[in-house]
Amino acid sequence: MIESSQMTEAEAPLTYGMVGGGEGAFIGDVHRKAIALDGKAALACGCFSTDPQNTLRTGIALGLDQQRLYATFEEMAVEEGKRENKIDFVVIVTPNFTHYAIAKAFLENNINVVCDKPFTVTSAQSRELKELAEEKALSLCVTYTYTGYPVAKHARLMIENGDLGEIRFVNAEYPQDWLSTRLEETGQKQAGWRSDPDKSGASNCVGDIGSHIENMVSYMTNLKITKLSARLDTTVAGRKLDDNATIMVDYEGGARGVYWCSQIAVGNDNGLRVRIFGSKASIEWAQENPNYLKISYLEKPTEIISRGRDALYPGADAYSRIPSGHPEGYFEAFANIYKAFISFIMKKRNGSEILPEDLDFPKAAEGEQGVTFIEKCVESSEKNSAWIDMDH
Hints:
The chain is of the alpha/beta class. Helices cover 34% and strands 22% of the residues. Helix 3 (73-82) packs parallel to helix 4 (99-108), helix 5 (123-135) packs antiparallel against helix 12 and helix 6 (150-160) packs across helix 9.
């Protein structure tokens, strides 16, 4: 006798839609591939571009029902909200200035939201969306990718368990070199909208990659910034927004830090690196070599932890996918964000108990915090790097 392999309703994959991510886009395809890694959610609909023909071509290439390809995100939100088999969540992969309106439209139609970072252009918009989601008992996820790495999760748990002692100082950087010239004048799409204040917001470099520093340090350490002093530089002549920034921060409890982000650092690709110094030990983690963690101690030799070979804290090991020596990278980190979010949505749908570990994905609060950080950096720089309180 062959037993049925048919999934129960509780086990059935979720469905999702996407706004953005059509032909010529980069990040939408990354999201789709990352979600597909675990097979727990299937793409069902989309508005992939402001050009309906682009949406049609993209949807057909992805094998979607043409009846669920929409000319506008507004139409998609309303029509999907009406369906008996409406999508479980929408993924927003569009330029910064559109995030707020798109997220609001889907929340108003009772659909959970996953949004690329930065969450919105202003912290007021972030707060409004967070409150709307809470009011409707919906879930919001902001895709700060790098928190998905198992070793980053292990670093967080080390600090939480006191392995480093009292945190004294943080040094974090994120250098790139892709905007060392006026790339935005060549028609390059990503450079074009990021360097346009009408589409990117008040900051380019801090908004695009400095926000990753803020989020990663906050995720690992749980330290709260009380005040900061920032200098945002526009080094390439004719550019409207920052392409380099230096930020000093003070944390609640007395620890201090220095952040540097740059898109004009010739010779650097995607060099997010975090060094955290405690009273008993320090750690160093680099995104370009994400499977390893350097740990230095006061009274014993420095060691290198290897994902897949060495034991990580259980909450981190659960996100390790393949054996040691087989590098896990960007797609897997994205997939781990979705692994946690989709599992959480499934548990909510099924009425299962929600455990603390089920909430290990970036939420609206982290999104709002990131946007506030960007705003405060811009304010400080405009005031000649004055120290600015985060709460005012």
